[in-house]
Amino acid sequence: MAGFSDREQGGEGGEQAATAKRVDSPGDPADPMGSAGGRLGARHRLDRRGECWAIRLNGGKSVGGEFLDLVLQAGLVVKLVLLLLLAASILSWALIGYKWRALRGAEEDDSTFLDAYRHDPLDTVFEAARDLDRSPLAVIFLSGCEVMKRNPRPEGEGDSSESALAYRRKLTRAIQWAARGERQHAERGLTFLATVGSSAPFVGLFGTVVGIINTFQGIGVAGNASLAVVGPGMAEALIATAVGLLAAIPASVAYNVFIAGIEENNSAGELFAEELAEDLVTLRAQGAAQAES
User: Is 247 exposed, middle or buried (0-12, 13-18, 19+ CB in 10 A)?
Assistant: First the structure.
């Protein structure tokens, strides 16, 4: 009986130990407390493993959240850099839109003017040129006509006389000055685009350096190099770099496109200037011959 009682007590003790083991086991699905503990432990391990993707602070708010939040958390110098780059980007886009409309309008008016110049009488061409104020070729034509009106051909003047040669030189200079003025007008504002395209990345790089400096200062204050300390400063640095590229790339592309279009228009203007000078000299000689007859 004593042995049987001992075995019975030993069996009860073994069952209690097994039950306690099941209760303490965090992964036993039979116990809700153990299951919850296992889930919490697994979640903690996942958060630790995914620390490089999302740093959670203040009750789970991610540092890599809204762009505006990162900007507001940036230092004063970085904010000034971002403000400067934003202003440069806005001005660049406004200038890009203005130059695109101006070049497109100039091409359309040049085509209309050349069509009138090739087929219509001089009086009709003159009236069309006055209406097509966006056409550089029309401006060049009006400059040549103004010189011709101010310098009528004297009676008895030969084509090889000194006065005729002087008139040709004067007419050529006037047309060339008009063409140069139209070229300068077309290139106005491109210097700003070139400056933004070349300097904005370096301004963003300056913001990057400041962000890195702030990062090291945060490491020194916190006494550790965890992602919670490094992340905000690196985010500031990356934002400054991204905004710098965002301002520089459109300005550089637009500058190259506009320069190519302006060079093409300038080549057409030079050819037209030479043709106009010859036509006006011939027209002046014909007018003088008709007057003599």
Answer: buried
| 106-164 residue pLDDT tens | 999 999 999 999 888 888 888 889 888 889 999 999 988 888 888 766 555 555 567 77
Q: Residue 62: beta bridge partners?
A: 56
**Rounded distance between C-alpha atoms, residue 70 and residue 58, angstroms:** 15
pLDDT in tens, 232-260: 667 777 888 888 999 999 999 999 999 99
Q: How far apart are the first and last CA of the chain?
A: 159
Token pair recorded at residue 258 = 């506009």
- 56 backbone dihedrals φ, ψ, rounded to 5°: -105, 125
- Six token digits for residue 175: 């047309």
CB 200 within 8 A of CB 85: yes
Give the list of residues 6+ apart from residue 53 with CB closer than 8 angstroms, or none: none
Give this prediction's pTM: 0.66
Nearest to 269 by CA among 98, 163, 122, 144: 144
Contacts of 1 (CB under 8 A, 6+ apart): none
Q: The tokens of 109 are what?
A: 């008016």
pLDDT of residue 73: 66
CA atoms within 13 A on the CB side of 58: 4
On the 0-12 / 13-18 / 19+ scale of CB atoms within 10 A, 187 is middle
pLDDT confidence bin for 211, thresholds 50/70/90: confident
Which ranges in the chain belong to alpha helices (H)?
Answer: 2-24, 32-49, 67-73, 76-119, 122-131, 136-150, 162-187, 190-222, 227-292
